[in-house]
Write a structure and sequence with these properties.
The complex is a heterodimer. Chain A is mainly beta. Helices cover 0% and strands 58% of the residues of chain A. By secondary structure, chain B is α+β, with helices and mostly antiparallel strands. Classes of the chains: A mainly beta, B alpha+beta. Chains A and B meet through β3, β6 and β9 of A and α3, α5, α8 and α10 of B.
Chain lengths: 130, 407
């Protein structure tokens, strides 16, 4: 599982999803924050790639509490013009204080059917250097 | 005139070559192409091979071809005239799709509907080898009923994808529960929990991130096949059947959506097939509003204004320019694939100071994806001279089929 280090004393952590444009595929997603060492979690954001606003959300504070949690991006999508746009990439990014801490992506080819994508990123507290 | 035609030919020839040089991924701003409408084009209309002066509004297509007069005296013949039209915005290049790109495209939707057409027709009225050459431009000011940009329709698709996503999550859970012993083996390899924790797990909820573990292992072909078989036995997500039906429904109810097109064409004439001999002959402007007129009908209101010489080559010393104005109205009724229509047109020709009328009955037929047959017949009468004659027309127009891969 992709691990991303964050600063427990830094600003709020932001999770951001990137999809192909809606002229290429329609994507419906749910972003979930799963608590440390369990399967229970909470929905951070649901939406689609139709509006022009960024698909991003801030994680809960205090920031340090996010240690060991997993950010999950679950997407259902359908390619609209597969002959001309055969490939897709869905990306989950983690940001803090304007810096991209890390990202995970899933790439593949559209099929003539609805598709399902699941991306996980584990948040790990960066140890303080004294 | 020659310079314009040279540049247009270069553009039509070079743009596809340039695009071909890019990777397949680079083709962008393509869309869900639904072949609603006969692809009329200004350069073709400017050639004057059709009795009607109505320019049919259409949705932008990357590439379209029109051929006319291929049926004469009960025989199929090599077409005397043809035209091609390209949409530069549909052929634009960008290596990555992005929201910024999409935003720019949405903001400049009218500009992106800009299309260029180039047409040629044999014209023996002034020379045995004479040809007319036309260069046309067109934009859509109103273009309702385009699925790829219809945000309401895309929202409906998104909602259905949300249902599909939730249903898939449930199916995966059921599959993992069925094969929980295998999931435990995978979980031990994954190493997020101790083996004893995994052995003690009473159910999936005790296996942390079982869904991620399953997702990774479904990349194994044997387990993917097993999963697909499992899905087939369950009540599988119904999105795909719904989507196919929805696309068809959308096409049926939107073939007659409102549209407004503006177009301009410049016509040149040449005594021979050499481009260097071409001289300016006429300029034409068109405006056509397509109005949805009930569930299965559409009314087209057009205006065509042209200005130029009637025969600039034959009468080399006659540089007089004349105005002509045509106001056609066409009423269509039917379905997307077959429509009948009646049409009336008033036309004023300044050259003869005559008023002409045209009454047509015809049909548009779409027997195959991307292929349109357009035929009509009617009476053309000169109100000033009191004469009339019968005229028929049959032409073929081709666009890329919805599933055709240009590159």
């Amino acid at each position: 599982m992709k691990e991303v280090l964050f600063n427990p004393d830094g600003g709020l952590i932001c999770a951001r999803a990137l999809f192909p444009p809606s002229s290429v595929a329609v994507a419906n997603y749910e972003m979930i924050l799963r608590f440390k060492s369990v399967n229970a979690g909470t929905t951070l954001l649901t939406g689609d790639n139709l509006n022009l606003e960024d698909d991003q959300v801030f994680l809960p504070s205090p920031v340090e509490t996010n240690d060991g949690r997993r950010v999950i991006l679950e997407t259902g999508f359908r390619g609209l013009d597969i002959t001309n746009q055969p490939n897709y990439t869905i990306t989950l990014e983690i940001w803090q204080d304007g810096n991209l801490l890390g990202s995970e992506e899933e790439s593949g080819q559209f099929t003539e059917a609805a598709q399902y994508s699941l991306i996980f990123i584990k948040l790990v507290k960066q140890e303080q250097v004294i | 005139m020659k310079r314009i035609l040279y540049r247009a030919i270069l553009l039509v020839l070079i743009v596809p070559q340039y695009i071909y040089g890019q990777t397949l991924d680079s083709v962008t701003l393509s869309r869900m192409k639904l072949n609603f409408i006969v692809p009329d084009m200004p350069a073709f209309k400017s050639l004057g091979t059709e009795p009607s002066n109505l320019l049919r509004p259409s949705i932008p297509q990357a590439f379209a071809v029109a051929l006319s007069e291929f049926y004469s005296e009960q025989k199929f013949i090599i077409p005397n005239s043809f035209a091609v039209e390209i949409s530069p915005s549909l052929l634009l290049n960008a290596k990555k799709g992005s929201k910024a790109l999409q935003e720019r495209y949405a903001k400049n939707r009218v500009l992106n509907s800009f299309r260029i057409s180039l047409g040629s027709a044999r014209d023996t009225s002034f020379s045995p080898t004479g040809r007319n050459l036309a260069l046309g431009f067109r934009i859509n000011l109103i273009n309702d009923g385009e699925m790829a940009t219809d945000m309401g329709e895309l929202s409906i698709i998104s909602q259905k994808l949300g249902e599909f996503r939730i249903a898939t999550r449930g199916l995966r859970k059921a599959f993992a529960e069925k094969y929980i012993d295998q999931v435990k083996i995978w979980a031990k390899d994954f190493g997020q929990q101790t083996e004893s924790e995994i052995d003690k797990a009473a159910g999936l909820d005790d296996i942390v991130d079982w869904d991620l573990i399953l997702n990774k292992n479904l990349s194994d072909a044997a387990w993917k096949n097993k999963y697909d078989e499992f899905v087939g036995q369950q009540r599988a997500p119904e999105f795909d059947a719904w989507f196919a039906a929805e696309k068809e429904r959308y096409r049926k109810v939107n073939w007659n959506a409102n549209k407004l097109d503006l177009a301009l064409a410049v016509l040149g004439s040449s005594k021979d097939s050499l481009l260097g001999s071409a001289r300016f002959s006429r300029v034409d402007l068109w405006g056509t509003f397509a109005l949805r007129s009930g569930a299965n009908a559409q009314t087209l209101f057009g205006v065509n204004v042209g200005y130029g010489s009637v025969d600039s080559l034959l009468k080399v010393n006659d540089d007089k320019k004349y105005l002509h104005v045509a106001i056609p109205v066409r009423y269509l009724v039917g379905t997307n694939r077959i429509k009948g229509f009646c049409e009336a047109q008033y036309e004023y020709l300044q050259q003869n100071k005559s008023s002409n009328g045209l009454f047509n009955l015809g049909a548009e037929v779409n027997p195959l994806d991307g292929l349109w047959l357009n035929f009509y017949g009617g009476i053309n009468f000169n109100a000033s001279a009191g004469t009339s004659y019968f005229r028929t027309n049959l032409d073929i127009k081709i666009t890329l089929p919805e599933k055709f891969n240009l590159f």
